[in-house]
Amino acid sequence: MLRKLSVTHESWPLKKIFTISRGSKTSADIVYVEIEEGDHIGRGEAVPYKRYGESIMSVITQITALKNSIENGINSEELLTALKAGAARNAIDCALWDLRAKIDNTPVWKNLNKNVSGKITTAMTLGMESPAIMAAEALEYNKYDVLKLKLGSKDVIESVRAVRNVAPSPKLIIDANEAWTEEQIRAWQEELFALNVSLIEQPLPVGKDACLNSFNHLVPICADESCHTAKDIPRLADRYDYVNLKLDKTGGLTEALRAKEEAKLHDLGLMIGCMVATSLSMAPAILLTENADFIDLDGPFLLDVDRQPSLVVGPNCLLYNSDVWG
After folding, report:
1. What's this model's pTM, rounded to 2 decimal places?
2. Catalytic residue numbers, as ranges
Protein backbone atom coordinates (compact mmCIF):
# COMPACT_ATOMS: atom_id res chain seq x y z
CA MET A 1 0.00 0.00 0.00
CA LEU A 2 1.33 3.42 -0.94
CA ARG A 3 2.05 5.92 1.79
CA LYS A 4 1.49 9.65 1.99
CA LEU A 5 4.13 12.01 3.37
CA SER A 6 3.50 15.41 4.94
CA VAL A 7 6.11 17.70 6.47
CA THR A 8 5.59 21.03 8.22
CA HIS A 9 7.39 23.62 10.30
CA GLU A 10 6.05 24.21 13.82
CA SER A 11 7.12 26.84 16.34
CA TRP A 12 6.55 26.24 20.06
CA PRO A 13 7.11 29.27 22.34
CA LEU A 14 9.32 28.83 25.39
CA LYS A 15 8.38 29.86 28.92
CA LYS A 16 11.31 32.28 28.86
CA ILE A 17 14.46 33.05 26.88
CA PHE A 18 16.87 30.10 26.91
CA THR A 19 20.57 30.91 26.59
CA ILE A 20 23.63 28.76 25.97
CA SER A 21 27.21 29.74 25.12
CA ARG A 22 26.46 30.19 21.41
CA GLY A 23 23.18 32.11 21.58
CA SER A 24 19.61 32.50 22.86
CA LYS A 25 16.20 31.35 21.69
CA THR A 26 12.59 32.13 22.51
CA SER A 27 10.92 29.22 20.72
CA ALA A 28 11.49 25.61 19.75
CA ASP A 29 11.33 25.48 15.95
CA ILE A 30 10.79 21.93 14.79
CA VAL A 31 10.11 19.94 11.64
CA TYR A 32 7.08 17.68 12.03
CA VAL A 33 6.60 14.64 9.80
CA GLU A 34 3.62 12.39 9.22
CA ILE A 35 3.73 9.21 7.16
CA GLU A 36 0.27 7.84 6.45
CA GLU A 37 -0.45 4.28 5.36
CA GLY A 38 -4.07 3.19 5.23
CA ASP A 39 -5.72 4.08 8.51
CA HIS A 40 -2.41 4.55 10.33
CA ILE A 41 -0.23 7.64 10.75
CA GLY A 42 3.36 7.57 11.98
CA ARG A 43 4.67 10.78 13.48
CA GLY A 44 8.17 12.13 13.96
CA GLU A 45 9.72 15.39 15.05
CA ALA A 46 13.19 16.89 14.74
CA VAL A 47 15.03 20.09 15.60
CA PRO A 48 17.36 21.52 12.93
CA TYR A 49 20.56 22.84 14.51
CA LYS A 50 22.50 25.71 12.97
CA ARG A 51 25.70 24.41 14.61
CA TYR A 52 25.52 21.46 12.21
CA GLY A 53 24.63 23.55 9.17
CA GLU A 54 20.92 22.81 9.41
CA SER A 55 17.91 25.08 9.09
CA ILE A 56 14.17 24.52 8.96
CA MET A 57 14.25 24.95 5.18
CA SER A 58 17.26 22.69 4.59
CA VAL A 59 15.74 19.88 6.65
CA ILE A 60 12.36 20.16 4.94
CA THR A 61 14.16 20.14 1.58
CA GLN A 62 16.06 16.96 2.53
CA ILE A 63 12.84 15.24 3.56
CA THR A 64 10.82 16.25 0.51
CA ALA A 65 13.67 15.16 -1.77
CA LEU A 66 13.12 11.66 -0.41
CA LYS A 67 9.33 11.83 -0.85
CA ASN A 68 9.09 9.15 -3.56
CA SER A 69 11.20 6.67 -1.59
CA ILE A 70 9.24 7.29 1.59
CA GLU A 71 5.87 6.94 -0.11
CA ASN A 72 7.01 3.79 -1.91
CA GLY A 73 7.94 2.02 1.32
CA ILE A 74 11.51 2.82 2.38
CA ASN A 75 12.36 1.19 5.71
CA SER A 76 14.61 2.36 8.54
CA GLU A 77 17.61 0.28 7.43
CA GLU A 78 17.41 1.63 3.88
CA LEU A 79 17.04 5.14 5.27
CA LEU A 80 20.48 4.88 6.89
CA THR A 81 22.13 4.90 3.48
CA ALA A 82 19.61 7.16 1.75
CA LEU A 83 20.17 10.14 4.06
CA LYS A 84 23.01 11.35 6.24
CA ALA A 85 22.69 11.54 10.01
CA GLY A 86 20.87 14.62 11.26
CA ALA A 87 17.49 16.13 11.95
CA ALA A 88 15.89 15.19 8.61
CA ARG A 89 16.71 11.50 8.99
CA ASN A 90 15.60 11.58 12.61
CA ALA A 91 12.12 12.88 11.79
CA ILE A 92 11.61 10.26 9.08
CA ASP A 93 13.10 7.37 11.06
CA CYS A 94 10.97 8.04 14.13
CA ALA A 95 7.86 8.37 11.98
CA LEU A 96 8.64 4.99 10.40
CA TRP A 97 9.06 3.33 13.80
CA ASP A 98 5.78 4.86 14.93
CA LEU A 99 3.97 3.81 11.75
CA ARG A 100 5.18 0.21 11.98
CA ALA A 101 4.12 0.01 15.64
CA LYS A 102 0.62 1.18 14.76
CA ILE A 103 0.27 -1.16 11.79
CA ASP A 104 1.41 -4.10 13.94
CA ASN A 105 -0.60 -2.88 16.93
CA THR A 106 2.52 -3.38 19.03
CA PRO A 107 4.25 -0.47 20.81
CA VAL A 108 7.86 0.19 19.84
CA TRP A 109 9.04 -0.58 23.37
CA LYS A 110 7.62 -4.10 23.06
CA ASN A 111 9.23 -4.62 19.67
CA LEU A 112 12.56 -3.60 21.20
CA ASN A 113 11.95 -5.52 24.43
CA LYS A 114 12.67 -2.37 26.43
CA ASN A 115 11.40 -1.85 29.96
CA VAL A 116 9.96 1.65 30.04
CA SER A 117 7.47 1.19 32.84
CA GLY A 118 7.38 3.81 35.57
CA LYS A 119 8.55 7.39 35.58
CA ILE A 120 11.76 8.62 33.96
CA THR A 121 13.51 11.28 36.03
CA THR A 122 15.32 13.85 33.93
CA ALA A 123 17.91 16.48 34.68
CA MET A 124 16.54 20.02 34.70
CA THR A 125 18.49 22.61 32.74
CA LEU A 126 19.35 26.13 33.84
CA GLY A 127 20.14 28.46 30.95
CA MET A 128 23.29 30.57 31.03
CA GLU A 129 22.76 33.65 33.18
CA SER A 130 24.64 35.59 35.83
CA PRO A 131 25.68 33.59 38.91
CA ALA A 132 22.99 35.33 40.99
CA ILE A 133 20.18 34.52 38.53
CA MET A 134 21.31 30.92 38.15
CA ALA A 135 21.39 30.56 41.94
CA ALA A 136 17.85 31.92 42.20
CA GLU A 137 16.64 29.40 39.63
CA ALA A 138 18.56 26.59 41.30
CA LEU A 139 16.84 27.42 44.58
CA GLU A 140 13.51 26.65 42.90
CA TYR A 141 14.92 23.39 41.54
CA ASN A 142 16.68 22.31 44.74
CA LYS A 143 14.29 19.40 45.24
CA TYR A 144 15.32 17.79 41.95
CA ASP A 145 17.93 15.05 41.70
CA VAL A 146 20.01 16.42 38.80
CA LEU A 147 20.61 19.97 37.57
CA LYS A 148 22.35 20.84 34.31
CA LEU A 149 24.04 24.22 34.07
CA LYS A 150 24.61 25.90 30.72
CA LEU A 151 27.85 27.86 31.05
CA GLY A 152 30.18 29.82 28.81
CA SER A 153 33.80 30.65 29.53
CA LYS A 154 33.12 33.44 32.06
CA ASP A 155 32.07 33.21 35.71
CA VAL A 156 32.31 29.43 35.59
CA ILE A 157 33.47 28.73 39.12
CA GLU A 158 31.39 31.61 40.47
CA SER A 159 28.23 30.23 38.82
CA VAL A 160 28.76 26.68 40.03
CA ARG A 161 29.57 27.84 43.54
CA ALA A 162 26.48 30.08 43.63
CA VAL A 163 24.27 27.18 42.52
CA ARG A 164 25.90 24.75 44.92
CA ASN A 165 25.38 27.14 47.84
CA VAL A 166 21.60 27.03 47.41
CA ALA A 167 21.35 23.48 46.01
CA PRO A 168 23.78 21.31 47.97
CA SER A 169 22.13 17.96 47.18
CA PRO A 170 21.47 17.59 43.42
CA LYS A 171 24.00 16.13 41.05
CA LEU A 172 25.42 18.86 38.82
CA ILE A 173 26.17 18.60 35.12
CA ILE A 174 28.02 21.44 33.40
CA ASP A 175 27.46 21.95 29.68
CA ALA A 176 29.94 24.34 28.09
CA ASN A 177 28.89 23.76 24.45
CA GLU A 178 32.50 23.91 23.19
CA ALA A 179 33.24 27.24 24.92
CA TRP A 180 36.37 26.30 26.91
CA THR A 181 40.04 25.87 26.16
CA GLU A 182 42.33 23.08 27.31
CA GLU A 183 44.00 25.50 29.70
CA GLN A 184 40.66 26.40 31.26
CA ILE A 185 39.52 22.87 31.88
CA ARG A 186 42.88 21.98 33.41
CA ALA A 187 42.71 25.07 35.62
CA TRP A 188 39.10 24.61 36.70
CA GLN A 189 38.70 20.87 37.15
CA GLU A 190 40.11 20.73 40.67
CA GLU A 191 37.64 23.35 41.94
CA LEU A 192 34.78 21.73 40.04
CA PHE A 193 35.67 18.41 41.63
CA ALA A 194 35.62 20.08 45.06
CA LEU A 195 32.17 21.48 44.24
CA ASN A 196 31.00 17.93 43.56
CA VAL A 197 30.29 18.39 39.86
CA SER A 198 29.32 15.01 38.39
CA LEU A 199 29.93 15.60 34.67
CA ILE A 200 31.37 18.17 32.25
CA GLU A 201 29.71 18.07 28.84
CA GLN A 202 31.65 19.03 25.69
CA PRO A 203 34.03 21.60 27.19
CA LEU A 204 36.27 21.83 24.10
CA PRO A 205 35.47 22.55 20.45
CA VAL A 206 35.09 19.63 18.08
CA GLY A 207 38.46 19.00 16.47
CA LYS A 208 40.32 20.39 19.48
CA ASP A 209 39.50 17.62 21.93
CA ALA A 210 42.35 15.16 21.21
CA CYS A 211 44.20 16.63 24.20
CA LEU A 212 41.62 15.15 26.56
CA ASN A 213 43.58 11.89 26.60
CA SER A 214 46.68 13.65 27.96
CA PHE A 215 45.53 14.26 31.54
CA ASN A 216 43.45 12.62 34.25
CA HIS A 217 39.85 13.78 34.44
CA LEU A 218 39.03 14.68 38.02
CA VAL A 219 35.46 15.22 36.81
CA PRO A 220 34.24 12.85 34.05
CA ILE A 221 33.93 14.44 30.60
CA CYS A 222 31.11 13.74 28.14
CA ALA A 223 31.18 14.09 24.34
CA ASP A 224 28.19 15.86 22.82
CA GLU A 225 28.97 17.83 19.67
CA SER A 226 31.90 15.45 19.06
CA CYS A 227 29.67 12.37 18.98
CA HIS A 228 26.99 11.87 16.34
CA THR A 229 26.88 8.23 15.23
CA ALA A 230 28.31 4.83 16.16
CA LYS A 231 31.26 5.45 13.81
CA ASP A 232 32.42 8.36 15.98
CA ILE A 233 32.69 6.37 19.17
CA PRO A 234 35.93 4.37 18.66
CA ARG A 235 38.00 7.54 18.15
CA LEU A 236 36.44 9.17 21.22
CA ALA A 237 36.95 6.26 23.62
CA ASP A 238 40.36 7.41 24.89
CA ARG A 239 39.31 11.08 25.16
CA TYR A 240 35.95 10.97 26.92
CA ASP A 241 34.33 9.12 29.79
CA TYR A 242 30.74 9.45 28.53
CA VAL A 243 28.90 10.12 25.28
CA ASN A 244 25.64 12.06 24.93
CA LEU A 245 23.31 10.37 22.45
CA LYS A 246 20.70 12.62 20.86
CA LEU A 247 18.32 11.46 18.14
CA ASP A 248 18.81 14.64 16.13
CA LYS A 249 22.54 13.85 15.95
CA THR A 250 22.31 10.13 15.29
CA GLY A 251 19.61 10.67 12.71
CA GLY A 252 16.96 8.64 14.46
CA LEU A 253 16.33 5.75 16.79
CA THR A 254 17.77 3.10 14.46
CA GLU A 255 21.28 4.57 14.54
CA ALA A 256 20.97 5.60 18.19
CA LEU A 257 20.44 1.97 19.21
CA ARG A 258 23.64 1.05 17.34
CA ALA A 259 25.55 3.93 18.92
CA LYS A 260 24.43 2.80 22.36
CA GLU A 261 25.80 -0.70 21.76
CA GLU A 262 29.05 0.75 20.40
CA ALA A 263 29.47 2.90 23.50
CA LYS A 264 28.99 -0.17 25.66
CA LEU A 265 31.69 -2.03 23.71
CA HIS A 266 34.12 0.81 24.44
CA ASP A 267 33.22 1.09 28.14
CA LEU A 268 31.83 4.60 27.77
CA GLY A 269 29.10 5.81 30.09
CA LEU A 270 25.84 7.01 28.59
CA MET A 271 23.94 10.24 28.69
CA ILE A 272 20.66 10.44 26.77
CA GLY A 273 20.01 14.01 25.71
CA CYS A 274 17.67 16.10 23.61
CA MET A 275 17.09 19.38 21.90
CA VAL A 276 14.38 21.74 23.15
CA ALA A 277 11.27 20.16 21.66
CA THR A 278 7.91 18.60 22.48
CA SER A 279 7.08 15.25 24.06
CA LEU A 280 7.00 13.72 20.59
CA SER A 281 10.79 14.14 20.42
CA MET A 282 11.29 12.67 23.90
CA ALA A 283 9.18 9.52 23.40
CA PRO A 284 11.64 7.59 21.19
CA ALA A 285 14.59 8.83 23.24
CA ILE A 286 13.07 7.30 26.37
CA LEU A 287 13.66 3.91 24.77
CA LEU A 288 17.41 4.56 25.06
CA THR A 289 17.39 5.33 28.79
CA GLU A 290 17.73 1.80 30.12
CA ASN A 291 21.11 1.60 31.95
CA ALA A 292 21.92 5.23 31.09
CA ASP A 293 23.92 7.07 33.74
CA PHE A 294 22.44 10.49 32.98
CA ILE A 295 19.07 11.33 31.43
CA ASP A 296 18.53 14.84 30.07
CA LEU A 297 15.13 14.85 28.35
CA ASP A 298 13.71 18.04 29.80
CA GLY A 299 12.96 19.76 26.47
CA PRO A 300 9.17 19.84 27.03
CA PHE A 301 9.60 21.41 30.47
CA LEU A 302 11.03 24.52 28.80
CA LEU A 303 7.98 25.00 26.57
CA ASP A 304 5.10 27.31 27.37
CA VAL A 305 2.72 24.59 26.11
CA ASP A 306 3.61 20.99 25.23
CA ARG A 307 2.14 18.78 22.53
CA GLN A 308 -0.88 16.82 23.76
CA PRO A 309 -1.05 14.16 24.96
CA SER A 310 2.14 14.92 26.86
CA LEU A 311 4.75 12.70 28.46
CA VAL A 312 5.20 15.16 31.32
CA VAL A 313 3.70 13.76 34.53
CA GLY A 314 5.55 15.61 37.30
CA PRO A 315 7.95 18.46 38.05
CA ASN A 316 10.86 16.63 36.40
CA CYS A 317 9.36 13.30 35.37
CA LEU A 318 8.32 11.76 32.05
CA LEU A 319 6.17 8.69 31.51
CA TYR A 320 6.15 6.71 28.26
CA ASN A 321 2.72 6.93 26.66
CA SER A 322 1.90 4.95 23.53
CA ASP A 323 -0.73 7.57 22.70
CA VAL A 324 2.13 10.02 22.17
CA TRP A 325 4.31 7.73 20.05
CA GLY A 326 4.36 4.10 18.94
Report:
1. 0.96
2. 150, 246
